[in-house]
Amino acid sequence: MASPTKPGSCADITHARKLGLVRLLADGPAVEILADAGYQNRGAQTGGRVITPPHRKFKKNAPDWYKEMYERRRKAHSSRRIRVEHGIAHLKNWRALTRHLGRREHVSDTIQAIAGLLAHQQTADVNLARQM
Predict the structure, then answer these.
(1) Are 30 and 51 a contacting pair, CB within 8 Å?
(2) Over the stretch 67-94, which tens digit does the pLDDT of each residue have?
(3) pTM score of the predicted model
(4) Helices marked H in 5-106 — which ranges?
(5) Beta-ladder partners of 50
(6) How far apart are CA 38 and CA 50, in angstroms?
(7) What's 4's DSSP letter?
(8) Under a CB-based contact definition with an 8 Å cutoff, are residues 26 and 47 in contact?
């Protein structure tokens, strides 16, 4: 699922705030969202539903035990989040989005259609793998 597009450039966290994502997550169903560092501190506002990479407490002179723990937690988050990044990359690979020549008011519909096709394709791939 993708949010509707708006004219002009806008950071995704600003767009999420305007759409009421934090309020929706706090009051809505129990889902887990793997986010990047731009969504830091949203976990507390959403009841722990937004999972971000660990925040670095020591910028200088960190103890060795902290460096190891931080790297382990960062890598674990990154390993889980790579699926999200691949999903975004799949959307960007569609020609309809790389060279959008149509009317801008229809680009939201195009993105929704492509996201639906990708979700269907991934579900079909999982079902095929289960049958084998």
Answers:
(1) no
(2) 888 889 989 998 888 887 887 787 777 7
(3) 0.57
(4) 12-19, 21-27, 42-45, 64-92, 95-98
(5) 33
(6) 11
(7) P
(8) yes
